[in-house]
Structure formats: structure tokens, C-alpha cells
User: Fold these one by one.
Assistant:
Number 1:
Amino acid sequence: MESNKQHFRHILLFYYRKGKNAVQARKKLTDVYGEDVLTVRQCQNWFAKFRSGNFDVEDAPRSGRPVEADKDTIKALVDANRRITTREIGERLNLSNSTVYDHLKGLGLTSKLDIWVPHVLTERNLCRRVDVCVVFHQDNARPHTSLVTRQKLLQLEWDTMPHPPYSPDLAPSDYYLFRSLQNFLDGKIFTSNEEVKNHPDQFFASKDQKFYERGIMLLPERWQKVLDQNGQYII
């Protein structure tokens, strides 16, 4: 009986290396040996073990207590299906939910929105999450469209938001930042070049992060106004 088990497992390993999946490999077996040879779940468990890099087809030795699940096997199941539940893993490996959870925790995994993800993100993961949230917006001034600028944006892998020509009313720098600067400088009289340089510095130093955020957040409202006015200026 034991030799038959190993024979069937060798066949599963053969079809795994041929690129078949567990269901396809089981069909090959049942076509020859009948439906009772192995269950689909048993075949899936062996394929998960193979995917983890473990190609040993012999049963692990038993010591009178339940055999602990191989973490590599659990990891292979999760890698194959990030939405797999602890109950499904437990049913496949004959383990309790708490045991499966402990193994997943030991693998550094946690469930977010029912998807298994790393509990602690690497520095690279963190940077990629931030990068994907960045969309760079600028107008069509010549320095912004120069080759050097475009090459730098490609290097940073930033997505850029297209800006329509002749549209200062849709550029936060024009409709918000420079207008605020103009109001700040309005009525001031300068007696030297040094004063001319210092006042803009004072303006920018006086503004906190919320000021700049507001200018950006006004942009969707202005887009909507342009749509409502069929593309006409909204200045």
C-alpha cells in the first residue's frame, strides 16, 4: 500500500514538472487507476509542497503527536492564492485555525482586507506605495518640457498629468500661489534689490503645508467648472 502511495506521488511530481496543475494531474491518475486513487485536495497539497521546493514524496515520520505543518507548504498555498483563508489551509493540512494563524504570523504575514500581505513592509515596498500615489502636475512652460526635465521625471518613474495649453486658470501656481504672492506684495515699495529678494522669501516662509495643499485641492473644483462651461476660461 505504501509503495502505491509513493508511486502515485511520483506520478504527481512528474506531471508537476511537465507544467500540469493538480486537477490535471489527478485526472491523468484517475483515468488509469480510478476515482478513489487520490482526492483533489490531496493532489493540491502535494503540488503546494512541490512549489515550495520540497520534492520528497515520502510521508514525514510520525511521533505520536500531530505533525507540524511545513511553513514552506503554507507559504506556497498563500503565494498561489493571497485570499486563501486559515480555514481552507487548515482543512487542506488537517490543522486548527489557531495553528495555521501562528504559522502565518511566523512567516511575517497578516491579513489586510482579506488578503495576506507582509506584516512589515520593506523600505522598497514603502517607496513603491508612495510612488504609485504621486502624480506630477506642471504647466507647459519651456523649462518644464525640456529634455532634462523629462528625463528626470522618467528617472523618478513619476506619472505626469497633462496640462492643456493656454490654461493659467488650471495651473495652481498661477491661480493660487502667484496670486497670493501678488496680494502679499501689493502696495509695498522697495528701496533696494535686497528688499525685492527678501520679501518673496518672507512670503514662502510664512506659509505652512496646509496652504500648498489647499491650492492643489482646488484643482478638481476648477476642472469641474471648465466642464460646466464647455471649456471656457473660469478666471
Number 2:
Amino acid sequence: MQLNRENINFFLNDLDTPITRVINRIIIGLIIIWSGILVAATYQIPDNINLIIDVINITILLIFVVEYHFRFYLWIVNSTIKDENTYYLILDLIAILPYSLAAINPILIYWLGWLRILKLLRFIHKQFLFIRIPDEALIFSRLVYTFFAIIFIFSGVIYQVEHPNNELFSSFIDTVYFSIVTITTVGFGDVTPNSELGRFLTILMILFGSVLILPQVGDSIKQLIQSANKVSDSCDPNSDVQNQDS
């Protein structure tokens, strides 16, 4: 099969055929595995298993580098700067960029690598998981994803900053616990960052949570009210009479 623009666009962006749905599900699975590798790296792993994980990590990276070049090619020949694909392309670049910056400082892989979860945003749309969903379900899906992404990214970065000198952040789960307690404003206070950078990242996490999550909560409530009103109107026999009179 000739690898041209139409074929690349078909395999990466079409969701109406079984083979393209399988390809996109594989990409989603690889993103989840790739993100999970970072979590696994925060624990003590035997050297032989760690070697296997490194091979998987590099393999997935190479796959996503190739995918990025294909998507960049499609963007060049098809898209304009205002196309939403531009934003997805930037997120794809952010996911693989830390490995390019590793030549400057290898620790950037562990600091910026947590941003790779943002690649999933491309797949949260009207055909979420390749099944058409209503608007209210789409809004809720994006809300859940935003909450999860903020927790995942900031937990990972705060862990990298705090765990060398703060025993309260001895594992990734401890940091996730801290992030959830903080962003939900429960604030038990039993786990707190010691470093200035850790506290600054905590402030950023709270701000991002407020800016990104609260508006989506409002949209979800608004959508639910509109859906409830539509159901109420459809069940009200007087509404048909009023419409006829008008």
C-alpha cells in the first residue's frame, strides 16, 4: 500500500472502520502504558524487569515520534493555524520533547515526562472510545480527564522534587494522596512539601484546578439542567398546547 496523504489521514483520523478504530485504540493503550512506565519508575524494580521496561519505553517513544511526524505532515498539507489539530499537535510534541531535552539535563525526562498524559486529550471527543456520546457525557468525560491529568502531572513532578529529602513523599501514591486532598480543598495537613519549589508547584496545582475544573463543573451543571428541562418539556402535555396556541 502506497503511503500517501490520504492513507495516512485515513489510518490516523478516520474512526468509521474497524481497522482504524483498532489503530486508535492501540495508540490510546500505548499512551496509558507509557504514562504508567513513569509511575513504575518511582518504585524499586529488579534490574532485569527494569531493562524490559526501558525497552518498552524507548519502543513506544519511537512509535510516537513516527506518529508525530505523520501528523505534522498532515497538518502542513491540510491545516491552518486556527485548526484545533494545531493544539493536539503541540501536545504531541510536548509528550516527546523531554527526550530531546535530555541532552541538556537527563532529569528533564522525569520532570516533564509526566506531560505525556496530555496526548489522551485528542481522543476525548464526540466519538469518545469510538462510540458516539451525547454532549453532557462528553462534557463530563472532559471534566474527569482534566481532574485526572492535573493530579497525574503535578503528583509526578512534586514527587520528583520532594521525595529525595521528604520522607512524607516516599512513593507516588503518597503524592497522589496529597494532590487529591489539596485540589479538593480537604487539606488534612498530614502530608506537606518542605521545599520552596514543592510549595510553588502546589500553588500552581491549585490554580490550574480552579481555572480548568471549575468552569467545566459549571458547564456540566448547565448541560444537566438543559437536559432536564428538555425531558420535562417533552413530558408536559401543556407544552404542546401552548406551542400550538402560539
